[in-house]
């Protein structure tokens, strides 16, 4: 193991000897002439260069003591590894100044805060930027406004450290409790992080490092990854996923991003385009997906993230939001988060007060689209308000052969073609041409809307999540036509009892609610 202290002592020794050699060199020039003293000059250059290199290596070793490969993280993204030139006083100044610029702008708008961060990094030397990336990766890696390559390097280092930590946790758990459900979860998380450190093969066969603008393994994990060359991109899509997305199953989001960036015919990546997956908030599970809290908490983070993105001059930015991500995106848009185009997919609603795109108060010229695939039960419930696919001032797009809630990025399909057209601005989208009535798309969908609303109206708000989780199988059964009326009543009664929610309902309530879901949906003769 290389010792940083030894490297620094060697560097100091060479520097001291170099100063003595300089005196000999000057004396030799006087005695024998400069030409004959040339070998001494070469030795001076070697001593100086070697001392600098030893100092750089010592600094890298110091960073590596915290885990990961700092040298590899910097060199992977073309950042200088010559961080040994940062003196002790410089390090103190950099830490202090970074902390100050963050705290001074904590209450500023996202745009003001990002501008201050950009100004701060713009004044730093290449060595100072590299040093901050490996010295404070947990701060720099998520810092909107910091240069993308600096964030890439910082997050790569964080991934390496987290992977080492969770590999140890996994080994210990397997040794003590191999049947624990946590084993499977940790195995998936370790697999994802291992993949993060491996190159991604592009459509034209190139191997490129994976690029992360955010990585935080805490809890379910938060990730933001860039596919393509963001610095040169003229068309950028930000994907915002919904419920149950986490670090352990992030590969499904990444696969959707790859599909979105891949040209249907050539298989190559779309030119001058980049796609970003933004899993930058604590996504809900089924239980709390009916509550807006996590969308409200995540919206400012999306606003800040968008403010920190830099692409080619004049680049167009598209927002592709899915499921609960549409609710979060709606709130971010209402805060003034700028996008040139927006697509809501499989939306449970954009909030109870949003009845039209006009209510979002978007910038003039913003294009707004929506998709709802047949059988998408999340859209049918309208748990958070009206489905944007039914709003008159939002253009509803065709989804082709997609069905259910999770097939909007299916390759070589009309839905994905539409998304790529919006991303690149090249071509015409295909509009949904069917009937807007829910029952024409999915038998029982209108019934489900009424059923869910009636059930939710009779339990306290903090119990709504439990209700949604318990009734998910019943909802799906109603919509696919496998549940008749007697069965629906029996299942509803049993589910309420099993979930501990039966106390909120009198026996006659069940028949009343089921009956109301039929009559108000216009399906008496089912």
UniProtKB/TrEMBL annotation:
Q: Where is the DUF1023 domain?
A: 216-381
Reply yes or no: does the keyword Hydrolase apply: yes
Q: Which Pfam families does its entry note?
A: Abhydrolase_8
What GO annotations for molecular function exist for this entry?
hydrolase activity
Keyword tags: Hydrolase
* Residue stretches in coiled coil: none
Q: Where are the transmembrane segments?
A: none
Q: What is this protein called?
A: Alpha/beta hydrolase family protein
Species name: Microbispora hainanensis
Q: What is the lineage of its organism?
A: Bacteria, Bacillati, Actinomycetota, Actinomycetes, Streptosporangiales
